[in-house]
Amino acid sequence: MEKFKHLQKIKDLYAKGGNIIQYLKTINNTETNSIQDILISYDFQSGTYIQNFSKNQEYANKYSKALANIIDKIENVESIIEVGVGEATTLCTLINNLENKPTKILGFDISWSRVKFANGLLKDFGINNANMFTANLFEIPLLDNSIDVVYTSHSIEPNGGREEEALKELYRITKKYLILLEPSYEFSNDEARARMKSHGYVTELYETAKKLNYKIAAHRLYDYSSNPLNPTGLLIIEKKASFSNNSNLVCPISHTELIKQNESILYSRDSFLAYPILDNIPCLLKENSILATHLLTDYDNYKKEHNIVIEH
User: Fold this and answer.
1) By residue range, what is the domain housing residue 279?
2) Residue 119 φ/ψ, nearest 5 degrees
């Protein structure tokens, strides 16, 4: 995490209204947004989305209700996840608007601070059964075909050039439908397209989905969009999985089962990797992993088994 060395300068830049991602891109002189750039930018912005939500709840409700109307038409939705959940401003209003509420609600974001705010907003809405965690959308700690409905809301957005990687990973965990509310390059004017490219946004989700031979059930402008220069498109991909898995969290590196050892540790007995739980939020970026082959070893038992005598 080389750019973490610049956090104090970034804090000062952000306090003055500077653009964090643009600054971070100048460090390595790149045009694309790296995962580390996105993480740092979003974490510093945490809290602002709830501020905006509080001022625009009517619009947020309409935005989510339109999505709820789509999901309610899908049969037997038992599990749902928002990828890039942010501060759960979409997830909370979506769950409120769903007629058929799923029994399993999940969400993750690359930013721990955003997930912290998400848990707070979920509590405000009386939603107590949501499983929130941190993760990288390119390395999701879930098994193949594990979630009935996977959706995004402008969370793939800053990953221009990585459309295929993102789609393959989201499609992997999807059991029935993948619903993308993302910048609509195809339905944008020239000014909006130029802006998307300058910001490093995705521009080829639809073309990539076609190239991957995914079954596209819908592709159009979404009913609501807050910024005409960043119009929201709707892309629905249908998937009929040949088998399904549970929605339990797994190691993002090995995809092996994670066991909660105590209130602060998730552990994979198969990969020997441990992950911290910080303020009830599982931290499941691969960078959070700790190799702990002897996490379950009891020191006193180990001495007995190996006839070790310590004199003191």
Assistant:
1) 259-305
2) -60, -35
- Statement to judge: residues 293 and 216 lie in one domain: no
Number of domains in the chain: 3
State how far the Cα of 281 lies from the Cα of 274, in Å rounded to an integer.
14
The pair of three-digit structure tokens given for residue 209, joined into one six-digit string: 């989905």
Determine what percent of the chain is predicted with pLDDT higher than 70.
100
Same domain? For 29 and 84 the reply is no
Residue with tokens 């891109």: 25
* H-only helix segments in 46-162: 48-55, 57-71, 89-97, 112-124
Q: Is residue 228 part of a domain?
A: yes
Residue 204 DSSP code = -
- The better pLDDT of the pair 112, 22 is held by 112
Q: With the C-alpha atoms ordered 284, 289, 292, 298, is the resulting torsion angle positive or negative?
A: negative
What residues are paired with 179 via a beta bridge? 151, 236
Residue 4's identity, in one-letter code, is F
Q: Are residues 232 and 279 in the same domain?
A: no
Residue 312 in domain = no
Tell me: do 143 and 11 sit in the same domain. no
Q: Please state the pTM of the whole predicted model.
A: 0.92
Q: Write down the residue that tokens 């952000």 correspond to.
A: 14
Residues 62-101: tens digit of each pLDDT? 999 999 999 999 999 999 999 999 999 999 999 999 999 9
Q: What is the pLDDT of residues 266-303, one digit of tens each?
A: 999 999 999 999 999 999 999 999 999 999 999 999 99
List, edge to edge, every strand of the sheet that includes 232-238: 130-134, 104-109, 79-83, 147-153, 174-183, 232-238, 215-221
Mean model confidence pLDDT for the chain: 94
